[in-house]
Design a protein that fits this description.
Double Stranded RNA Binding Domain, SHC Adaptor Protein, 2 domains, four-stranded mixed sheet, 3 helices
Length: about 170
């Protein structure tokens, strides 16, 4: 683990170093692999800013927190960093789990005969004879795409449907 401290208009006290080392030890258990950590501590106009740059095995994190006290800024920055690391680990773990399910499902499995297509009955028709205009009114009233009806004055069936351009189409045998 490589740790670098940079203090800009701030004093780097042993207390701050010890606190950073203690929190890094806890963070090291969450992050696998080598760590590259840069601490940039800045004091401007009474505000203390803690900036933590972490580079670890495929992930880079930059955390910036600013308060009136340097230890409080570091505490918030470490809390934010831990939250992000835990969230990334959970996301990676879930991604691996989903990948495992996909791989298991992609393995050659004995193919079962496909179920036949199911027919679902719908009542988009009228058994009473009607005119084309009445069928269009029924089509609009039921807010459906197709309406089947019996032509007035004959025993033949016809279907009226809504086209993609907004017009109506008619199918007659």
């Amino acid at each position: 683990m490589n740790v670098r401290y940079t203090a800009r208009q701030a004093d780097l006290t042993p207390e701050i170093k010890a606190y950073c080392e203690k929190r890094l030890a806890r963070l090291k258990t969450l992050l696998d692999g080598t760590l590259d950590v840069n601490f940039i501590l800045t004091v401007q106009k009474g505000r203390s800013q803690a900036e933590i740059h972490v580079q670890a095995k495929g992930h880079g994190y930059v955390i910036v927190e600013e308060t009136l006290d340097m230890l409080e800024s570091l505490n918030k920055a470490f809390d934010t960093l831990e939250t992000r690391v835990r969230k990334d680990r959970a996301r990676l773990r879930e991604k691996k789990r989903r990948g495992g399910r996909e791989r298991r499902g992609a393995a050659p499995v004995p193919v079962a005969p496909e179920p036949e297509n199911r027919v679902i009955r719908a009542s988009f028709f009228s058994a009473t004879p009607m005119t084309l205009e009445e069928a269009i009114v029924q089509l609009d009233a039921k807010d459906k795409e197709v309406f089947l009806f019996r032509r007035e004055g004959s025993k033949t069936w016809a279907a009226v449907y809504r086209r993609k351009d907004g017009q109506y189409g008619l199918v007659e045998p």
